[in-house]
Specification:
The chain is mainly α. It contains 5 helices and 3 strands, in the order ααααββαβ.
Length: 235
Amino acid sequence: MNDLDRLWELQSVLTALNEREKQMAVKPEAFAAIDAEYQTANEEMTRLRQQIDTLAKERRRVEGELADQQELLKKYQGQLMQVKNQQQYAAAWKEIDAARKHVKELEESDLKNMTETEALQTQLDERSGAHADLQSRYDTAHGEWQHSLSDLKAEAEKLRQRAADIEANVPPRLKNEFHRIYKQRQQVAVARVMNDTCTSCRTRVRPALAQQLKRGEMMQCEGCHRILYLEKSTS
């Protein structure tokens, strides 16, 4: 195997490695669907819990204020028995009336809070009941994905080792040139020639250049400047 054959094999190995790494970075369609459903369900349950917690805090505040207002109402009612004239009596009733209205508003707010909380809790209970089945389906799909990832990681590691073995037999200057082009040209440093055409950029290979390739000389595409590889004829 000459250096050009090694570079072509290195390119093929790195292309396969890139494909494995892309596959590892993207969730399979089957898992992505159940994952989206799972995440949406969890987000909805979290939203419901947060709303219930917010209502619970508000209810505690209202009930605290209601207790204060009820104590204040008792105080005003007690003061009513101690008034000495009509003016004081009217003022006391005004305070009592305002306190009663406030108590009523707080009681209505507390009742509304309870109704909203019960409705949200019902929704949460319904979603929680269906979540066990969703969790099971998610765990199964996730396990299958992780298993496939293990296989991909093993394949990727073998490809990395193969690339390192090939590079070990490529002269440093040529290896550096390969990686320079590889980085500059979308991770394709070696382009195959088919029907006298560069398969990467579709530039036509001139007859003189084609003859040099047939003699095994290392040439670069005049269009994309990638290293050209002409597969040897088996005939």
